[in-house]
Amino acid sequence: MQRVCFLLKVRQDRIEAYRERHASVWPEMCEALTATGWHNYSLFLREDGLLVGYLETEDFAAAQAAMEKTEVNARWQAEMAPFFEALDGARPDEAMKPLTEVFHLA
């Protein structure tokens, strides 16, 4: 199982709205994530907007590609894009660049 961690930055003026949005993620989005191989997926948000994402998957590139093919993901990414800083024209899911793991306590 591959462990994946990534960082994004939520706009300071949208932090509370971002939290509220994730208090009720669409059931079809959760189902699509599970069906496409996203497991143990968590998001952590710091007060300054730093967002840390963590998930486990067999193949992150394949999981991303499978989500990209879903209609629900297109709708979700379009709604979430305005919440983030520095996407440089990318969708939020395209801006998720995995960090390099340097230590894991097994």
TrEMBL record:
Pfam families: rhaM. One of its GO terms (molecular function) is racemase and epimerase activity, acting on carbohydrates and derivatives. It comes from the Bacteria. Gene3D superfamilies: 3.30.70.100. One of its GO terms (biological process) is rhamnose catabolic process. This is L-rhamnose mutarotase. It comes from Streptomyces minutiscleroticus. The lineage of its organism: Bacteria, Bacillati, Actinomycetota, Actinomycetes, Kitasatosporales.
